[in-house]
Design brief:
Elements (H helix, E strand, L loop, with lengths): L2 E10 L3 H12 L5 E4 L6 H9 L5 E6 L23 H6 L5 H19 L5 E4 L10 H11 L2 E2 L3 H6 L12 E3 L9 H13 L4 E6 L6 H4 L5 H10 L2 H9 L2 E3 L6
Parallel strand pairs: 1-2, 1-7, 1-8, 2-3, 3-4, 4-5, 6-7
Helix pairs in contact: 1-2
């Protein structure tokens, strides 16, 4: 049975080093897809690079925890900036959902302005779209636009989120992350998915070259390790041997 494998690199637009790493992993490796932070400091650079790389599918990385919003969001920001307090607000059921819905729409339209097309799919920075109060907003928005959406099925089941009618991959793997990056870790995620009978799988990744912005990130040098693994010719062969065809969210 042929299976579709989507290797999606998050954080397109975060920095030039991130952008170049994603492009390298697409040109010479397994990355087929990426998702763009439209409020990232290097988003214009990302959009420029994407025009020269049509084989790289580009989706939208909805942002509510980094940088500045594109719309007025006094209920979520502090001193005009996003931050990780969003989870505490969610626990307190204090999220400004109208503001979040407006920002989602603004970021979507900014994506279209930058890239000249609609995104292939929607996911989010730090997985904020899987927060139970936010998930229905993003799911309905994706359905209304006719675009796919990343769904972590484990979280959806835990929070009893209704993902019916939302186009997505059968499986999603976030395990290719951390200090133990290797070929075997990547292949292990594929074998786990195949064992569950999933016909399509997204593997999340963050390949990058280290620059000043990445140096300031809590997740720095493993991005270089990811780039090395994802551009390994032997890994590409092993993926094909397992019956996977590289694809994008256009294939689901």
């Amino acid at each position: 049975m042929e299976r579709v494998l989507i290797v999606n690199a998050d954080d397109f637009g975060l920095s030039k080093g991130q952008n170049y790493g994603i492009v390298e992993a697409c040109k010479n490796g397994l990355v087929t897809s990426t998702t763009a932070l439209v409020n990232g400091t290097a988003i214009d650079h990302a959009a420029l690079l994407s025009r020269c790389l049509p084989e790289l599918a580009v989706g939208m990385h909805f942002v509510l925890t980094l940088g500045s919003p594109l719309s007025a969001m006094p209920g979520l920001t502090r001193e005009g900036k996003f931050g990780k307090w969003i989870w505490q607000m969610a626990e307190e059921d204090a999220l400004p959902l109208d503001e979040i819905a407006g920002e989602l729409d603004r970021q979507y339209h900014r994506f279209v302005e930058l890239f000249g097309s609609e995104p292939t799919h929607i996911d989010s920075h730090h997985h904020v779209h899987m927060i139970p109060q936010i998930f229905p907003l993003v799911a309905e928005f994706a359905k209304s636009k006719g675009v796919a959406m990343r769904i972590d099925r484990g979280l959806a089941a835990r929070y009893q989120l209704d993902d019916s009618g939302v186009r997505s991959s059968d499986g999603f793997a976030s395990e290719f992350y951390g200090e133990a990056i290797s070929d075997s870790l990547f292949l292990q995620t594929l074998d786990t998915s195949a064992g569950q009978g999933e016909r399509s799988l997204e593997v999340m990744c963050h390949p990058a070259f280290v620059d000043n912005t990445i140096m300031g990130s809590a997740y720095c040098y493993p991005r270089l390790a990811e780039l090395d693994v994802l551009t390994s010719p032997s890994l590409k062969y092993a993926v094909a041997e397992r019956g996977y065809r590289l694809g994008t969210y256009r294939d689901v």
